[in-house]
């Protein structure tokens, strides 16, 4: 079915982008950000995350919708379960992002790098922990989606 092929390609690309961005951030960008002095970290964070907040949720939601439709359309149990499980993992990644990482991002972006409050608590350890959690969910979803795609071959 052509629709299933288009949705499968869309979910693989979307989920791959999400997992890739989060993974790349976790192993490349984040170690650099973590090593910066607080004022430089805040300035960098404010300039770096401008495009993520509006774009990433759109990609995640699109992939979740594709996964849900594919789970319904799949005639076989294995891809049905894999697509559904991947949707759940992507939803979990999105929930962690929206309830943990994004609020920290907003707090950091509200700061003036030249006037950090004396009682400021550095959020980098907390942000990193939740970033690893959401990255793990996104990668698990990608594994599930890839397995579902190849199970139909």
UniProtKB/TrEMBL annotation:
Tell me where the transmembrane regions lie.
6-33, 54-75
Name the domain of life this protein comes from: Bacteria
**Membrane found in the keyword field:** yes
| Alphabetic keyword roster | Membrane, Transmembrane, Transmembrane helix
One Pfam family cited in the UniProt record for this chain: Anthrone_oxy
Look up and give the organism this protein is from: Spongiactinospora gelatinilytica
Kindly give the InterPro entries that the UniProt entry links to this protein: Anthrone_oxy
- What is the name of this protein? DUF1772 domain-containing protein
